[in-house]
Amino acid sequence: KAAQKLNPTVPIKFHISSRTDAGVHALCNAAHIDIQRAPGKPAFQEKELISSLNYHLKPEPIRILNAHRVAASFHARFSALSRTYVYRLLVGCTHHSEVPVFERDLCWAPGGGYLDVPAMQDGAQFLLGTHDFSTFRSHNSETPFRSPVRTILQIDIQPSSGFLSHHYEHRGLEFWELKFRSRSFLYRQVRRMVGTLVAVGMGKLKPHHIKELLEMKDARALPPNAMAPPSGLFLKSVEY
């Protein structure tokens, strides 16, 4: 809608690199548009385009950070080499009411207050590489038409800092980030992988159970409630 207000001569077609579930965040996403101007009008300069789009996006919780002229063959979704997602976990809360108010809806605080991170890191190794991830996808209208085979290029589980966390260090809260990189992911795949890894961290599963779940190739094999909520998930970047 913002681009349509720039008076193109042909209706705008907008293509985004990645769609996300409701409640999932994007630190940085990418999209492409074709803007055809009236005869005699020069193409938009990159800075001009950024400021014009942001002017019309004022009411929305979104901002254009960069713009680049690309070849006609470029496609924001299909030209992507990889996508990186980050999932934020908060450890140390025995009840959801203990989540800092400024972190609400920006992380997941699993009950129990403790996670065995080394066990989670061991379990994550089974997810690396190329596999049939049928167990780790939710079904939607595209499921029958999309291959369940994906290649996970990177999984990292690292300590992180929370927003203003130095002000509540005395509460003993810990933030962890799970980073996943792949060319593409299946529907809700990251959230299901995170939920399963957290089950390992809580001692409900052993690391080797991740391998067994992969080999089952059955979405129904995942333990109940093993899908992480959307609030902790962030699309970090799209690489081209």
Automatic annotation (TrEMBL):
Keyword Ubl conjugation listed: no
Catalytic activity: uridine(38/39/40) in tRNA = pseudouridine(38/39/40) in tRNA
Molecular function via GO: RNA binding; tRNA pseudouridine(38-40) synthase activity
CDD domains named in the record: PseudoU_synth_EcTruA
Ranges where the Pseudouridine synthase I TruA alpha/beta domain occurs: 124-240
One protein family per Pfam: PseudoU_synth_1
Enzyme Commission code: 5.4.99.12
Enzyme class: isomerase
The UniProt record lists the keyword Ligase: no
GO BP, sorted A to Z: tRNA pseudouridine synthesis
Keywords: Isomerase, tRNA processing
Family: Belongs to the tRNA pseudouridine synthase TruA family.
Name used for this protein in its record: tRNA pseudouridine synthase
UniProt source species: Halcyon senegalensis
